[in-house]
Request: fold
Amino acid sequence: MSEIIDYRPYLDNDFKVYVCVLAVCDRDGNIKPVSFIWEDGNSYDIDKITEVRPAASLKAGGAGIRYTVRVRNRHTYMFLEENRGIRKWFMERR
Reply:
């Protein structure tokens, strides 16, 4: 007799936070995030983007285009991941 295993608890990720992002796209197709809404509902403006490159999130898992951004004088990463044609933004929880 086989036992049914519920894998859902193992799929939860305490470090990955999907966020709503306001971004602009220029005529060359470059995407620039301007602000985001954190999971607590607060909105944060992005002061500066210092780097954009493909990368993986070693902390939260997943990969995509990694934006190194400065928000309130702190550097952090934002990721734009694409899965089956669907794009989603995520950040790493500290």
Remarks:
- The two ends are 43 Å apart (CA to CA).
